[in-house]
Amino acid sequence: MKVLFLGPKDSHLFFFLNKRASVTQTENKISIKEVDALGPDIIISFGYRHIIKRPVVTAYDGRIINLHISYLPWNRGAHPNVWSFVEKTPKGVSIHLVDEGIDTGDILFQKEVFLKDTHTLKESYEILNKEIQDLFIKKWPNIKKLNFKRVKQDPDSGSYHTKKETEEYLDKLGICNWETKVKDLKERSDKDIINDIQDIRAKNNTHWMDLVKLAFEVAPTDSRSIFKKIKYCDEKVNELLKELAEND
Fold first, then answer.
1. What is the pLDDT of residue 191?
2. Rounded distance, CA 248 to CA 224, Å?
3. 184 domain-assigned
4. Are residues 168 and 210 in the same domain?
5. What is the pLDDT of residues 78-128, one digit of tens each?
6. What is residue 94's three-state secondary structure?
7. What is the CATH number of the domain that holds 79?
8. Assigned domain for 223 exists
9. How far is CA 149 from the centre of its chain?
10. At which of 155, 177, 199 does a domain end?
11. How far is CA 35 from the centre of its chain?
12. What is the pTM of this model?
C-alpha cells in the first residue's frame, strides 16, 4: 500500500505507518503532478502547514485524511486547544476527510478528551496530540480500507480561528509562553479587575498607615506640618467634587 504522508516525520504516527506501508513523506507544498507521480492509495495529513489545493483534493476525493486536535466542528483552524478553553467549547480530536475548506471535510472518527484548567498550554497540546495519533492507530484497519462512515459538517455551526487572531488574543492577555496554565486564558471582566484593585488598595492602605506611624515616630513635628497641608488639599478637592456633583 502506498501512503503519502504530509507533515513532519518525527511523530509516532509516521513511525507506525512506515512499518505498515510504503510511505513517502514531505512537509513541502505539493502539486497534482507530484502526487500523481507517486500514485498514493491514500494521503495522510498530520501537522501539515499548507492548504492542499483543489486539483489534488478533486483527484483524490475521499482519500485525503487529516488529523485535527479539536472536536469538530468546533475550533477549526489554528490553536484549537487554546480556543476550546477561551470559548468553553467541547475538547477533543477529529479525523476527517479533506475538502477545499479548512477543517471542514466530512468527519470520520472523533473522541472527546477531558482537559484540566490546571494544564499548561503545552500540556494540553501534547495530550491532544497523543490522543489523535492513538485514535488513528486504533482506526487504521478501517482507514486503510477506506471503510468508514462519513458525517458531514454543518458549515454554519462550530467555530474557526486563525493564527493571527490567536496571537493577538494571547498578546492582549500578556501571555507569551506555552507554560501558561489554560485557566489564565479567560479574559477578565470589569468586575474582576475592580475586585483586584480593591484588594490591592486594601493592602496599600495598611502600608500607608505604617508609613504614617513611622513618620510620627521619627519626626512628629515635621510630619504634623505635612499632614496639615495634605488636609488642606483634601478639603479643596472635596469642594471641587461638591461643585462637580451640583454642576447640573
1. 64
2. 38
3. no
4. no
5. 999 999 988 889 999 999 999 999 999 999 999 999 998 889 999 999 999
6. strand
7. 3.40.50.170
8. yes
9. 29
10. 177
11. 32
12. 0.74
